[in-house]
Input
Amino acid sequence: MKSAPALFFRPLSLRRSVALSLCASALAVLPASAQEAAPAAAPAPATPAPALKAVAIAKIKATPALLANAEGNQRRNSIDRMSQALDGQLVAALQQTRKFTVLARSDADALIEENAAAGRNFSFGESDLTLVVTIDDFQDFTQTAHFAAINKTATKRVIRFSTVAKLYETKTNKLVETANFQEQTLDTEEELANSASSGGELSDSLLVALTRRMSEKVAQRVADAAFPARILAKTGKTVTINRGDGTGIAAGQLWEVFALGEELKDPDTGASLGREEIKVGQIRVQRVTARTAQAEITGEDLGVDRGAVVRRVEQ
Output
């Protein structure tokens, strides 16, 4: 078989040459950076987690006048026990809000001793806020009522104490928030028979109950001053709040919901007064978990949504 004439292959060879020349010309026009493989994109920097504010809790004290009165009524031991119990309960209650790094100044002696045993220098570090709590009232007395119609007499022991809580900016000594709190316990006559009589010392059960309720009130007020409770999510008529077990929230409580408006300023001083709060509804707490709580919208919904501030309705 005869081979094809050489002339038959020339057009194909020519076409290939032209195509290769065009490709080379195109590559030459492109910048050098485009001819190389594009480098992998650098990962976006991670957003740093917000740092918790450090709160130093000063040692709980009673006012000098209250201590002098307790000495005269032989109740100084009750005041001291109340102060010491409130100190420990307040540390626990503030820690349970999960909003702060808590520095318990009253534990300094134990921490200094432990660090010294390990050959380290002890330092609490700097705090952003300082909480000062003072016991300014303590009453312990009995009440007796006689019911003539049934010829019965009932006796109750009344224990009442109150505190003043003050929250300061540590670096500036500026007073951020102040509040008065009061707790009262009424013992029935059956409970009274198992505890100390009027003017006696507080029983352990009364001491724990009073200081726990008081510490939860103070811790909640501190958390609300720095970070008001808010709605995290909404599904239908159910909302989730960023308050959980140990923060004073409980099933059955009624809370008001406020939408945040524009920033408010004092016309005289120019100081910020926070943001305008407009009531948009009410919710009732249904369930409390370790870190959150779920509530149901009651009545009209005028704009209950994520980010809204919620405040408990005091009964």
Summary: The first strand starts at residue 53 and ends at 57.
